[in-house]
Design brief:
Helix content: 25-40%
Number of domains: 1
Distance between the termini: 20 Å
Length: about 130
């Protein structure tokens, strides 16, 4: 599960007022919920893109801090996909990036840089591990 921060001064509920509707628009119908760090996240058990096996996404609330977007994209093994399904891989990457940009206001490059900084700033992270 990855967690994404919003841009400085922005909040998830302002960027996407109806998170469930937006998730369904990008990935398919929500089939349930799953608890993560005390928050209920949406589960898409049968995503509309065949590259995805399952998607879990939602807002994680932190007391005294801004909410973060938590996402877990479970992708199918490429060896199991038919040639037609493999063609959907490019669309799957586009959908992921478009959704994350809409939700966080950050493009793929700035999300990567933010994740690197988070790992570098983590005192419990052992670089030699």
């Amino acid at each position: 599960m990855k967690e994404y921060k919003m841009r400085r001064g922005e909040y998830l509920e302002e960027r996407i007022p109806d998170l469930k509707a937006s998730i369904e628009e990008y990935f398919g119908p929500v089939t349930g919920t799953e608890e993560f760090k005390g928050s209920d996240l949406y589960v898409i058990g049968e995503p509309s893109n065949p590259v995805f096996e399952r998607i879990v996404v939602g807002a994680v609330e932190y007391s005294g801090k801004k909410d973060k977007l938590a996402v877990d994209f479970v992708e199918r093994n490429p060896a199991e996909l038919s040639p037609d399904e493999l063609e959907a891989a490019g669309d799957a990457v586009s959908k992921k990036n478009e959704f994350l940009l809409e939700a966080t206001g950050r493009d793929a490059k700035s999300r990567r840089e933010s994740m690197k900084r988070a790992v570098e700033d983590d005192p419990d992270h052992d670089v030699d591990a």
